[in-house]
Amino acid sequence: MKSPWEMLKSPVGSGGAIHLLSSQNIPNTLSEMGVKYIEVCSTTKMLSGWNPLLAGLVDLQGADVGFQISQDLSHMEESFDLIFSVDFVKSLAKQMDKLHFEAILKANLHVQLVEKEWVD
User: Transmembrane region positions (predicted)?
Assistant: First the structure.
């Protein structure tokens, strides 16, 4: 990421979100702030935003990963919600050179926080 405040608007390939989060040491910063979970969700209207029921289930079970997909299987790739424990993201970030991911080689749209304004 160009900055810790950049948000992607399109897919970055398997492992892309973990790589981008770890590039600015975000998991360690979040852990120091007391954050326990990171949510990665689709931008569709079907599943978007923080999912407290999924987060509660992941926390209650002590799981490292929780996921929810749409019941409409025709839109499964566009409608997802993943919650990772910060500790799990930190452990994945340490293994980025060992993990085999498939990159999507293309420019991605993003927004960035500039002088307290989100800009494209």
Answer: none
